[in-house]
Amino acid sequence: MRVEYINPFVEATFSILTEVLPETEVKRGELTLKSTTVSIMGVAALVGLAGDVEGRVLFDMTRDTALAVAGVMNGETFTAMDELAKATIQELANMITAQAVSKLHDLGFKFDLTPPALFTGENMEISNNLKIEALVVPMNLGPLGKIEVNVAIRERL
User: Fold this and answer.
1) Distance (Å, whole) CA 157 – CA 140
2) What is the largest CA-CA distance in the chain?
3) Could you give the count of Cα atoms lying within 13 Å of 64 in the half-sphere of its Cβ?
4) Please, are residues 134 and 149 in contact by the beta-carbon 8 Å criterion?
5) Looking at the DSSP assignment, which residues form a beta bridge with residue 126?
6) Cα–Cα 20 to 30 A to 126, which of 14, 46, 55, 63?
7) 3-class secondary-structure state, position 43
8) Is pTM beyond 0.70 here?
C-alpha cells in the first residue's frame, strides 16, 4: 500500500478529532501493520472505496470511547449506543472520510465511497477479501480512549 493513501486519512482524522473534541489532546500513535482479518474493539465505522483505488477504511474504538466521543460531540452524556450515539459516530466517519477524499482527489485519485456502516458488538472480526494488509494508526484521546484508523487500500488491479 502506498503512503499517499494512508496519510490523508491520518491527517484528516487528527484534524477532525481536534475540531470536534476541542478540550481533548489528540496524539498520534505508532503505525502498525495488521493482517487481512482484524478483531474490532466494540464499535467500528467502515467506509468502502471503489474506483482508481479499492479497499476500506475502518474507524475502530471501544464502546466506552464511542459513547464518550458521541457525548462530547453532542454536549450530553450517553450510557447506551442509542440511535443518536450511532449516528454521531457515523457522522464522525463521514467528516473524516470527506476531508481525506478531498486530499486524495487533489492528488489525482478518483473513486467512490460507501456511506459508513456501523458495527457494534463483542468478539467481532472484519475480513477483507482483497487480501490487503491494513496500516493502523491509533489516535490517543487521553481519558476518552483511542480510535484506531485502519486503512486497507490498493490501486485497482
Assistant:
1) 34
2) 46
3) 6
4) no
5) 38
6) 14
7) strand
8) yes
Instruction: Give 26-68 pLDDT, tens digit per residue.
Output: 999 999 988 777 788 999 999 998 887 788 999 999 999 999 9
How does DSSP assign 66-132, residue by residue? HHHHHHHHHTS--SS--HHHHHHHHHHHHHHHHHHHHHHHHTT--EEEPPPEEEE-SS-EEE-TT--
Distances (CA, A) of 6 to 22, 46, 55, 143, 154: 24, 15, 12, 26, 10
Residue type, 100: A
- At 2, list the grid cell: 502506498
Q: What Cα–Cα distance (Å) separates residue 153 from each residue in 20, 29, 64, 68, 147?
A: 26, 20, 28, 29, 19
Cell numbers for 67, please give them. 459513547
Which residues are within 8 A (CB) of 99 and not within 5 positions of it... i.e. 6 or more apart? 8, 12, 15, 16
- The cell numbers describing 11, all together, are 491527517
Q: Where does residue 91 rank: exposed (0-12), middle (13-18), buried (19+ CB within 10 A)? A: middle
Express each pLDDT in 1-27 by its tens digit.
Answer: 567 778 899 999 999 999 999 999 999
